[in-house]
């Protein structure tokens, strides 16, 4: 199996207070891991370190066998996406321009038909000229899911990706994740409190005690894409 992401003995402090101590993990192609633990245990902070958005106090991170530091940040962005719990959108721009901003920031240029097709898959058909500001929280999340369909990243580091989604939206999120795992061998590390996501993932890691639990079988969701 190809190891897409590895971290070795990561430690992180907030001020002088230890938050994460000597954490190690390997994430492989087509693997899904749920990152669990109580609020404030460091899940979001860990994802930001793994995404290269902040630095640990000690330890190493490798993405596709390349050490994250001092490698150029732009190299990381070609294959790793950090999905924040608050969708980062250009609120005063329309939906299709938001999608173009996402894809072009990864060096991907696509015909308009591809953007419209992605919007249709996430239930935002005929809304391409609405501003992002006019969308509900759930629709904003669906827009970021449309971006994942277009970018097809090797690695997704997702922080509470189902925030704002109803039951249908959660199923849609899992459908997209599963299709990316199957067709693109995308690997996922998902910080979540949502039990449906935890049950769906192949493994779960409790950040409070660093325990890794693998499952003998994974519940699959029929892809609707």
TrEMBL record:
The keyword ATP-binding applies. This is ATP-binding cassette domain-containing protein. The keyword ATP-binding applies. InterPro entries: AAA+_ATPase (IPR003593), ABC_transporter-like_ATP-bd (IPR003439), P-loop_NTPase (IPR027417). GO terms for molecular function: ATP binding; ATP hydrolysis activity. Residues 5-224 form the ABC transporter domain. The lineage of its organism: Bacteria, Pseudomonadati, Bdellovibrionota, Oligoflexia, Silvanigrellales. Gene3D superfamilies: P-loop containing nucleotide triphosphate hydrolases. Keywords: ATP-binding, Nucleotide-binding. It comes from the Bacteria. It comes from Spirobacillus cienkowskii.
